[in-house]
Structures are given as C-alpha cells and as structure tokens.
Design brief:
single chain; two-stranded antiparallel ribbon; 11 strands; five-stranded parallel β-sheet; 333 residues; Rossmann fold
Length: 333
C-alpha cells in the first residue's frame, strides 16, 4: 500500500469516527454544530476550549455529553469566589498508617482527570484561576518539590458567563492564551427551542453510549499532527498573526487604533492545527488558506486585547479580526 492510499484510508476512518461522535452528541445536544465541531477541534488539537454564553444555553450539558461519548475519566469543578487553588490541584495531608506510622501523602484534586469541566471559570478570583496554568500548558502539576504527570489525553473545557454579568472576574491573559479556541454559544432558534423543550419537559431521557476508546483518540490526535501544511499557507497564518499587532507591517488602521496587544505565537499554532482538523473533517489530507480563515476568529478573539479606546467605543475583537482577513491578501510571493 502506497503512502497516499494509507493516508486516504486513515482520513476515511477519521471521518467515520467524527460522524459517529456528532451523531451521538446530537442525540442530546440540539443544534450548535459549529460549537460542537469547535470543541472536537480543540480535543483533536490536544488543547483546551473556552465556551462563553449566558446561563442556560447547554454549555455544561455539552461538556458532560462529550465526556460520556468518549468514555474518559471526567471531573467537574464549580468555580466560585471562595474556591482555593488547593481545591483544584489537591493538597498534602498527614496520613497515619498501621502502627501509628505517619507520612505525608498527596491527595489529588479534580484537575487529575482526562476531561476537566471548569464551570463558570470567571466567577473565581485570578489567584484561583491561575491554578490551571501549569496543568493546561504542560499536562502536569507541581506540588512542593514533586511533579505529578496527568494522563493523556487531557483537556480542559471551561465555561464562562459574559464579563458584563455581575460577579465575574476577567481571566488572566496568560490563562486565556492557553485556550485553543474561544467559542461563543449562540441563543437557539425557534425550531431548536421547540426541540429542547420537547426533550426536557417530557419523560424522554437519552443516555449516550461510548463511541471512541482512549487509544482511538490518541491516534486521531497523532493523525492531525501529520497533516501537511504548504509553506504559503503557514506564511498566511503568520501574517494574520502579525497583523493583530499595532506595530505589524500589514496591520490595518482598525488594529493600530483600537488594539493594545496582539495575539501570541500560540494564535498561529491554533489556526494551523485547527486548519488541519478542518481539512480532515472535509476528507482532505492537506490544509488550505480557507481552512486558516475559517479558524481565525475562534483562535484569535481571546488573544487580541483591545485598548481603552477600543473598549470605550465597544469595538469587538471579532470585528478587528474580520477586518484583517478582509484586508490581507491570500498569498504573498
């Protein structure tokens, strides 16, 4: 079998697994296809997702459903203003064994799971939110002088309420940057509301079944990394990233006026990995500039920080990114 034939078979198997995932999730979650695909892209990119929306839109239910169809170890952390870092990471306790012997033992916190739901993450203080930083970036936790490795696959799916709501804290920039995508959960349409009410106000109860094994998830993550990206496609993603900086050579006037800080290199990584996942979703084994454009909003909207003037005038980061995509040529020789 040639490499091309093997690649076609692997892509076909990937699509079949994704189709089964979407179908099983759709038995519980109504609509939100783009959000579901965004969450799956974060998982397949070996990274994390931030879901933003007003209460009641099914963000938590989506994460619970995903954990069920993947059959991975799942934990939920409810973020509140009085939550402490030790409530997330765990703590060292004095354990008394047989014969009165005492020893220090580390009791693992809920962060040690394959899928961690950080529910309403922006209701905790920045100090508590920062307890996630090492785990999200390095997939390990250091307590004292001991480092504890978290089993793969590992991803944090965080939900947050809009910052305008009472009792919320802005996420630290360093933590925002660790999220692969920021996905905005839209309000359902009338037909979707009918379907939601039919499912939730009757005796109907749907149990999801496991669709993928842990090894299959790791195989799919490895396939994503093998998808080739042409140099001009990678260069386009880099130019989009540079254009988010006010001092960038190709930054449009909107960026120079309203942006305080542009996206970090993680933004380009997210665009390109997301482009690879999108190509596989479509049955292609090569990422294109259109794939990069399709991932730009989710990958950059939380990484582009507006200036005081931008915030005062109500300029959205999505508007800034769309302006960059509109003004930036698709390729540059």
């Amino acid at each position: 079998m040639t490499e091309a034939e093997q690649a076609r078979e692997e892509v076909a198997a990937f699509q079949k697994r994704i189709g089964a995932l979407r179908e099983e999730i759709g038995r519980v979650i109504v609509g939100n296809r783009e959000v579901i695909d965004g969450v799956l892209s974060c998982m397949l990119g070996s990274s994390h997702a931030l879901l933003e929306g007003v209460p009641g839109l099914g963000k938590t239910m989506l994460v619970r459903t995903l954990a069920g169809v993947l059959g991975l170890e799942f934990s939920r952390i409810q973020f509140t203003p009085d939550l402490m870092p030790a409530d997330i990471i765990g703590t060292v306790v004095l354990d008394e064994g047989a014969g009165g012997a005492r020893s220090l033992e580390f009791r693992r916190g809920p962060i040690f799971a394959n899928i961690v739901l950080a529910d309403e993450v922006n209701r905790a203080t920045p100090k508590t939110q920062s307890a996630l930083l090492e785990a999200m970036q390095e997939h390990r936790v250091t307590v004292g002088r001991t480092t504890h490795v978290i089993e793969e696959p590992y991803f944090v799916l965080a939900t947050q309420n809009p910052l305008e709501m009472e009792g919320t804290y802005p996420l630290p920039e360093a933590q925002l940057d660790r999220f692969f995508y920021k996905l905005e959960v839209p309000f359902p349409t009338r037909d979707e509301l009918h379907a939601i009410i039919d499912r939730t106000t009757t005796s109907q109860h749907t149990e999801v079944k496991r669709v993928l094994t842990r090894d299959e998830i790791l195989q799919m993550q490895a396939l994503v990394r093998r998808v080739p990206v042409a140099r001009h496609v990678q260069d386009y993603a880099i130019r989009v990233l540079q254009a988010t900086h006010p001092g960038g050579e190709e930054a449009p006037e909107l960026v120079k006026r309203f942006v305080r800080t542009g996206a970090s290199p993680r933004g380009a990584q997210a665009m390109l990995l997301g482009a690879k996942v999108r190509a596989l979703f479509d049955g292609r084994f090569a990422a294109s500039i259109d794939d990069v454009k399709a991932t730009a909003l989710a990958a950059l909207r939380h990484r582009v920080l507006l200036s005081f003037e931008g915030e005062a005038e109500g300029v959205a980061s999505d508007r800034v990114i769309n302006e960059i995509l509109k003004k930036l040529p698709g390729s540059k020789e």
